[in-house]
Fold this sequence. Notes:
Elements (H helix, E strand, L loop, with lengths): L24 H18 L9 H37 L4 H22 L17
Helix pairs in contact: 2-3
Amino acid sequence: MADKNGPDGTGETGRGKQHEPDIRDDDLERRRRDLEASLATRRPDRLEGKDAKAGSVAGYGQALKLSSEFIAGIVVGVGLGWFLDRVAGTSPWGLIVGLLLGFGAGVLNVLRSAGLVAQFGQGDKTRDPKD
C-alpha cells in the first residue's frame, strides 16, 4: 500500500498543482455586464420598477377566473339537467345530457375568456364585404 492517501495518489486533494487561469476583476466585470445586457434583450417584458410578485398575483387571478368559468358552466348544465329530470321524470338522462352540455359550455367559456375564440355575434371582421 502506498503512503499517499489523496485521490490522485499524490497526497494532495483538489485540483493539485494545475495552474489557475489569470482572470482579472475588470474582465469579470465586463463579462457580467455583457451577460446582463444579453439577458435584458431576451426578457423585454420585465421592467425596472415592476415587482415580480405583481405578475404572479395577476397569474393567480387569471387562473381563478378561468377555473370559475369552467366550473360555472358545468354547475349550470348539471342544475338544468337535474331540474329537467325532476319535472319530466327522465332520470338520469337529463342529468347526463346536462353534464355533457355543461362541460362543453365550460370549455367554450374558458376559450372565450382566454381570447382564443371570438365572442358570440362577433364574427371574423377581416372578410371582404364584396364576396
